[in-house]
Amino acid sequence: MLQQRQDSHSAHIGGIVIWIIAFYIEGISESFYGVSYELFNISILFEESFESIGTILLFSSALDYLSDIGLDLTAERINNLAKFQNS
Length: 87
What we know:
Largest sheet: none
Order of helices and strands: HHH
Oligomer: single chain
Distance between the termini: 30 Å
Number of strands: 0
Strand content: under 5%
Helix content: over 70%
């Protein structure tokens, strides 16, 4: 279970780093607009791609972490849940 949480943390950090790169590309893409329209379109394509990949990594890390928590049912936790449901 601990290994899954480390993978989830790595995906979370990776998603944030990719989003930062996307924001940087978005910032410099305006400088390409006056130089070459094709370069501007390519920079927008990369920026949107990085935003999508970053979002996918962030959501996958959240889902991985939540599924890891949901599947970590020990006997003690099952008993506590049963007591909670019966009260």
